[in-house]
Specification:
CATH superfamily of the largest domain in chain A: Type I PLP-dependent aspartate aminotransferase-like (Major domain)
Strand content of chain A: 5-15%
Oligomer: homodimer
Protein name (chains A, B): 4-aminobutyrate aminotransferase
Number of domains of chain A: 3
Catalytic activity (chains A, B): 4-aminobutanoate + 2-oxoglutarate = succinate semialdehyde + L-glutamate
Number of helices of chain A: 18
Shape of chain A: globular
Keywords (chains A, B): Aminotransferase, Pyridoxal phosphate, Transferase
CATH class of the largest domain in chain A: Alpha Beta
Largest interface: A-B, 143 and 142 residues
CATH architecture of the largest domain in chain A: 3-Layer(aba) Sandwich
Strand order of the largest sheet of chain A: 3-9-8-7-6-4-5
Number of strands of chain A: 14
Organism (chains A, B): Drechslerella stenobrocha 248
Family (chains A, B): Belongs to the class-III pyridoxal-phosphate-dependent aminotransferase family.
Chain lengths: 516, 516
């Protein structure tokens, strides 16, 4: 903005310059009011290259700052007010996002915490990211916000371009089509629907019509139109909370109790022993038993299994990993039995594991049939490749909005920034550094850090903690916002802009809590 | 902007003024690039009062303009490209939203159509609305877009204020709390979950804990933890397309076939005969039989019914209406049998029926237990009043995003504009005018317009058409984008800024098609 002013003021007399500067200043004040300060001052622009020493965010603080109890007095008052109209029992912190920056989240009392939970693993680039601020202020965004289309009926003319500019440019290998959606649950359920329609299409034979009986019985929620078919998931898996996705979620009773569900099967998921190198034989046996369980269920369940859904790393359920060999075996079994493989990358996708998609670690011989995404994408949907996964007729897979182009623009910018800053490789590197630090700590504090896992998986690192909830709480007092999962796991979910100096702060804070 | 310039240029010499104007022009060009033209020119600001003669949008065209076949050559090329990556079989028109304005939608070939379908009834204020453009360019929006919170865990400090400033200010009478969501399907399914948890809470007795058997069986999708409970819906009802909502959807087989569903009951919904005044006795009998069917199913279904979900006007299924008396009867039956009443206002809500909520027409003695919303709200969720509808523990009703604050800001602005321009009353008036016109046409063309319905329901008007799909297609050739529903209905879903002169254009176009 100043450079524009300089260029245009060359031919102006001194008084005009002064006046133009005044106008400019008025405009700057206006802009400051309209944007976070960094957009006006340019002080916060991320650097252009990956370096473990130079901060991505130039005006990030040098460390956390805890001034009050959390929640402090202002937060407590705000929570009380909010609770009258909105359930606050799951509230963790009440936040001031205008004061949050990069890897640091500010609460309402202006405590500034290093955030390695990142809105349940859903913030990729940090708070008040300038590239996101730029797209958020663009004419494309304005258009997407104020003219929300019913995408399946009235897509904008540039929808192909929008999809190709980002969301499809990072499509998993072998998958070149997308169905856009609203949330992880929505993405998974639409994927399940695609799998069921594909299953029946195959049963019926290509080109066959629906029978009258199918059409009429479907309206009564009865067979054959509404068939008994299943999606298989794994114990401790989490795939969402709506009725279909919740039937495949097996994380905790609190997610499921009192809600009717489909009688779908769950297979055992490997529970590996750590350190992996010490338990190689046992773990191989465990994985092979789990695969046998998968095959047993597919061949013996009371109804056909149309698809298996699996997370590359079971997240909500407790951060459970399996080896590439296990997933290759799973792909082989699904191919053998004509069952689709749906990989749920809602939490693992978009770079955090040191690959753009976590299943890139597996080196599968054939790609998964469907890959779902959400969270760090800031939008949701599923990718597929087989054109037969488009249902036989229009309107079978459809809904009013089919996603939100505004959020797709955000994802596209995230993708560009990940590319520009090489954030996937950066996260692999930072993750390795962080893992080594935690490995050292686990040797010093073997009771506090058990079953450390996530080596070679970027910053997707977790461990079991004997007093997990107390640990998470204490971490706030030393300036870190950190999350848990499963019964006893601490899960790290820093952003992709998390750097070595943040890892040092985190490691120091953890040790401080252990020593206290 | 120009007025700002005028004010600040008073003390400047002529040359400075010229230069300032040049700078201003550069800025205007910049702004024109960044915003639709109206934002820079101010030519498009909506008027401040409701008048049937003065247009809300000053720069709307005087009528539609059809220059090519629809789809025209540019659209056809774009559809071909899009189809490679995104299913286009449900595509209606490929649109240029930057060229759309107010009630007029532009396609990619710059055909400009009067839009009385409005993105499947989801656009309330018209395309490129200046008030929405203003909030979309605000610092609050920037913050909401780039710092997307996990609302249940980390709400922003101003979340209470945001909710109270709009979304809660229009909460249906008696309902003062909200659970925010992503889409109509999501809103309904979360409402169903709330109903099931409430049901089991009542069964268990207040304060009772879950049993071990409930906890463990829920993880296996088995009773008693995963109970056999039902949501009752009505024949031809539409409540969404995810697994739970789809089990209550009974509109068309194409929505349901091949998808597993819950064995939930559907009651008969009244099929009234028109004109209503001629069939008063028959219609009263029909409604009372339908209510008897509701009570029969509640008392005889193989499992308990936790809630009844109903649309005030069945929309997707064919625009079927019932009288306030029917809904009062339904409320009485649900109260008598301890069944919750969920009113699905996804399509009927936010003003189109001449009341802000369609169920305001009913004058219920006690409010519904839950009211869901989406579409014209541009965001989604459910309202409730009874504090016991908050589940017994945190995290039972939860998901990562729990809505999108960016879209909530849009809804809040829609609410403000509806209030400022008195658009609910305006829609009641315009609807009455439009209905009268259609009534006249139905007498001239009794074969073409059958069962005209929606009198006194704002612009929520429909009729049965003998060759509906052909009619909808022909309407495009005379410059109107119009939608259907059910097997044979034409459904009108104009925006809230639809005025008498638009009604005249619409009536003329309809007659033109009838005469052709």
């Amino acid at each position: 903005m100043l450079s524009t002013l300089r260029a245009s003021s060359r031919a102006l007399p001194r008084a005009s310059i002064r006046r133009a500067v005044e106008i400019q200043q008025q405009r700057s004040i206006h802009n400051t009011l309209r944007r976070p300060a960094f957009a006006a001052t340019n002080a916060n622009v991320a650097v252009d290259s990956v370096s473990s020493h130079e901060p991505f965010y130039r005006n990030e603080p040098s460390g956390p700052s805890v001034k009050s109890a959390i929640p402090g007095p202002k937060s407590q008052a705000a929570i009380g007010e909010l609770d009258e109209v909105f359930d606050t029992r799951s509230l963790n912190m009440i936040c001031d996002y205008s004061k949050s920056i990069g890897n640091y989240i500010s609460d309402h009392d202006h405590n500034l915490l290093l955030d390695v939970y990142a809105q349940i693993a859903s913030i990729p680039l940090g708070y008040n990211n300038p590239a996101l601020a730029s797209i958020a202020s663009s004419p494309e965004m304005l258009n997407a916000l104020i003219n929300r289309p019913a995408l399946g009926n009235f897509p904008p003319a540039n929808w192909t371009e929008t999809l190709k500019a980002g969301i499809l440019a990072v499509a998993p290998s072998g998958l070149n089509q997308v169905f856009t959606g609203m949330s992880g649950s929505d993405a998974n359920e639409c994927a399940y629907k695609a799998a069921f329609m594909f299953h029946r299409r195959r049963d019926r034979g290509e080109g066959a019509s629906f029978t009258e009986e199918e059409l009429s019985s479907s309206m009564n929620n009865e067979k054959p139109g509404s068939p008994d078919l299943a999606i298989m998931s794994f114990r401790k898996g989490f795939h969402g909370r709506l009725f279909g996705s919740l039937s495949t979620t097996r994380s905790k009773p609190i997610h499921k109790i009192d809600i009717p569900s489909f009688k779908w099967p769950q297979a055992r998921f490997p529970h590996l022993k750590y350190p992996l190198e010490e338990f190689a034989a046992e773990n191989a046996k465990e994985e092979s038993e789990c695969l046998a369980d998968v095959e047993r269920l597919i061949t013996s369940w009371h109804c056909p299994v149309s698809a298996v859904v699996v997370e590359p790393i079971q997240s909500e359920g407790g951060d459970f990993h399996a080896s590439p060999k296990f997933f290759q075996g799973l792909r082989d079994i699904t191919l053998k039995h004509n069952v689709l493989l749906i990989v749920d990358e809602v939490q693992t996708g978009v770079g955090a594991t040191g690959k753009f998609w976590a299943h890139d670690h597996w080196n599968l011989t054939t790609p998964p049939d469907i890959v779902t995404f959400s969270k760090k994408a800031q939008t949701a949907g599923y990718y597929f490749g087989n054109p037969l996964l488009r249902p036989t007729m229009a309107y079978r897979q459809f809904n009013t909005w089919m996603g939100d182009p505004a959020r797709v623009l955000i994802f596209n910018t995230i993708i560009q920034e990940i590319g520009r800053l090489n954030l996937v490789q950066h996260t692999a590197n930072t993750g390795a550094y962080l893992y080594d630090g935690l490995d050292r700590l686990s040797k010093q504090y073997p009771t506090e850090i058990q079953n450390l896992r996530g080596k070679g998986q970027g910053t997707f690192i977790a461990w079991d903690s004997p007093q997990r909830d107390a640990f998470l709480k204490k971490m706030k007092t030393v300036g870190v916002n950190i999350g848990g999962c499963g019964d006893s796991a601490v899960r790290l979910r820093p952003m992709l802009v998390f750097q070595q100096h943040h890892a040092d702060i985190l490691l120091e804070a953890i040790e401080k809590v252990f020593k206290a």
